[in-house]
Amino acid sequence: MTSLPGGSDDSGSPAEPQPLVCARCGAGAKGPQPTWVCSVENGARQYFCDTCSRENLRAIEGRLDSAWW
Fold first, then answer.
1. Contacts of 14 (CB under 8 A, 6+ apart)
2. Which residues contact 48 (CB under 8 A, 6 or more apart)?
3. Using an 8 Å Cβ cutoff, are 38 and 46 in contact?
């Protein structure tokens, strides 16, 4: 099972917030990053920074079902 950074662990107690790290370039987030992209790939959440998201926008859109565009 996956959860958002800063969610609860299996015991139900709050976990330490995990800093976001870009899955493409490895850049670390400084605080909350609401503009980062979250993708679920093979059941695992991956986060992408603003720069990587912008540079790869066409590839991201190209993988969406036609219902999304």
1. 6, 8
2. 22, 23, 24, 36, 37, 38, 39, 56
3. yes
Q: Is the pTM of this model over 0.70?
A: no
pLDDT tens figures, 10-38: 555 566 677 889 999 999 988 777 788 88
Instruction: Extract the tokens encoding 44.
Output: 């695992």
First to last CA, the chain: 29
Residues 31-58 have pLDDT tens digits of 777 788 888 888 999 999 999 988 888 8
Residues 65 and 23: their CA atoms lie apart, in Å, by: 23
Q: Pull the structure tokens for residue 36.
A: 């980062």
Q: How many CA atoms lie within 13 A of 59 on its CB side?
A: 6
